[in-house]
Amino acid sequence: MRIQARPAGSYPWYLKPFFWSQKRRYGEVLLPGLLWGRVPRLFMTVAMLYGALDARRSQLDPVLRSLLTVRVSQLNWCRFCVDINSATLARRAGSMAKVEALEDWRTSQLYSAPERAALDYTEAMTITGRGVTDELMAELRRHYTDDAVIELTALIAFQNLSSKFNSALDVPPQGFCRLPSATPGGPGDTS
Q1: Residues 89, 94: Cα–Cα separation, whole Å
Q2: pTM of model > 0.85
């Protein structure tokens, strides 16, 4: 990592319940949380936004939400995010199949038409210079309500924030999942 976490005892008392929850859920405190925690007001803001986006009452299927977060993570070369989000996707989908095929989602038969539309939207929002077209939005709205599109957009934007933060600071994976192959041309690509 390019910036190290502070010693555990130096974080404010009101962040410790978040760290305890992460340790209980994942077996260890997440490295990005320790980095965000260096500036507590940012940590609290990001934690609240994440909580709103990962709500159980979401209009979006949990598998779809995880699918999109992994794809954004791949595109932004965030090794930590690919690791943790792939583990979540595999758990929610019941197998590693969608994780392993995600870089080739356009040709894989594993993805439904609504998932394909959402993945195309994800790439349009994430890849610099691509952008969202009216045609893409029309295709997306064939499968999702306006409120679901708002939620999709917020989720993708948040994952871009998170994965770019972690990628810039070179946050390593914490071993939650066997990582899919590197994105061609990205860090870790050995071809």
Answers
A1: 8
A2: yes
